[in-house]
Amino acid sequence: MTSLLALSPLILVCATAIVVMLTIAWRRHHDLTATLTVVGLNLALAAQLLAWWQAPLDVTPLITVDGLSIFGGVLILIATLACATLGHAYLEGARGPREEYYLLLLCAAAGGIALVSSRHLASLFFSLELLSMPLYGMLAYTYRERGALEAGVKYMVLSAAASAFLLFGMALLYARTGHLDFAGLGGALASAGGDGWLLAGMGMMLIGLGFKLSIVPFHLWTPDVYEGSPAPAATFLASASKVAVLVVLLRLLQSAPAIQDAWFHSLLAVLAFVTMLTGNLLALMQQDLKRLLGYSSIAHFGYLLVALVINEGMAVETASIYLVTYVLTTLGAFGVVTLLSSPYGGADASRLHHYRGLFWRRPYLTAVLTVMMLSLAGIPLTAGFIGKFYIVAVGVEASRWWLVGAVVAGSAIGLYYYLRVMVTLFLPEPGMQRRDATTDWAQRAGGVVVLALAALVVLLGVYPAPMIDWVRLMAAT
């Protein structure tokens, strides 16, 4: 019974997926399918409280439920709820079947929840594939658009290559250590020393996980996939998918500290440095908001890598707080793109000229996007500032001055292109191309979602104590 309660969020998400599938087989009804999805996700979110009462608990040799898994699960469920709500508004005008989107979304969410609870390489791989495979369909869901089909195929091919690297790396580690569980693997690595096959295995695993996190030089797919895919699918990819992979990587480094050998530690530091600067520099001249947000996400995971590189002191707390601020801000920014493109009528309204003078047409959407850009830039009184402050603080605490310098330089570069987006919102131009959102967007649930996200971003920037207390509570569980 205890194990069932601990696994109740995952069970509820899987049960909701089954109910949605049977409902689609019985009768296609877009509103009913979306409602069932949202209800099931809310029940799973409430069930995280039941799981927390049982934590920490090793449910099976493959799965554990602790504070880190509950933290990751809550973020994934919040992101999935936002994507389901925004997807309902977006798909209203889509031709062909619309209900399968929610089934794919639920399957991907189940994979993410299982991934953050993994303590074994086998469950890591299976969960990662369960998370990735539905994304292939979600990214190409509006397949009549060439960009969406290209995004889905590109992500599928490159993700399959990354999975092959990951699986081969696991095989090498198992061949040399005889362990697949994180704890046993860490102990075997500590006693094995710098064996060449072990180094190759860890390198291949880093390539596989680096692709999922869009770490330079495994980032090239990110802007193309973000730009071409439907906005709700890109939202899930940029938020829930990244959270799941980052949390399991954090667990792996915590469970097997021997993985952070001197060369591996140095390699991660170099990747963090290059990722921060490359993501920000490539975003400078982008004319498409989704591509800009893609490069921005690359830079932000470079910042997060700083906490993983240090991996001591406040590193776990820092990574967790930064993930919270990143998820809320990313959901809000992509939510505006989704609503401006709703209902579906072809390619998304993501070019910057779609946003010229948005303030004069959609002031509430403009306010939300302005808050999100300020938060991504790390401006005080937004949640993004709290995340950046923690990253800089943990870098200073560990005396990693060159990484701190890269964070500051990257933030300064990022300020330029975030401000460029904000200025565009207030620049009307005669004869400009327009792609208006629906006139009743404020009555839609999606409008409520983005307004709530903007309020949260400001509230946590002004009063971050509840977020910090929650993160510390999860870290202590």
Please tell me about this protein's structure.
The protein has 477 residues and is an all-alpha fold. It has one domain. Helices cover 76% and strands 1% of the residues. The protein is built from 20 helices and two strands. The protein has helices at residues 2-6, 8-26, 30-54, 67-90, 100-116, 121-139, 146-177, 182-192, 196-213, 221-228, 231-255, 262-283, 289-310, 315-340, 358-361, 363-377, 383-397, 401-425, 445-462, 465-476, and strands at residues 57-58, 64-65. Strands 1-2 form a two-stranded antiparallel sheet. The model is unreliable at 435-439 (pLDDT under 50).
Structural domain tally:
1
As laid out across the biggest beta sheet, the strand order is 1-2
**Main beta-sheet strand count, sense and barrel state:** 2 strands, antiparallel
Radius of gyration: 21 Å
Average pLDDT reading:
88
Number of helices: 20
Q: What coarse outline follows from CA principal-axis ratios? A: globular
The low-confidence runs, each spanning 5 or more residues with pLDDT under 50, are 435-439
- Count the E strands: 2
State the helical fraction.
over 70%
Strand content: under 5%
Distance between the termini: 20 Å
Question: What letter string, H or E per element, gives the SSE order?
Answer: HHHEEHHHHHHHHHHHHHHHHH
Structural class: mainly alpha
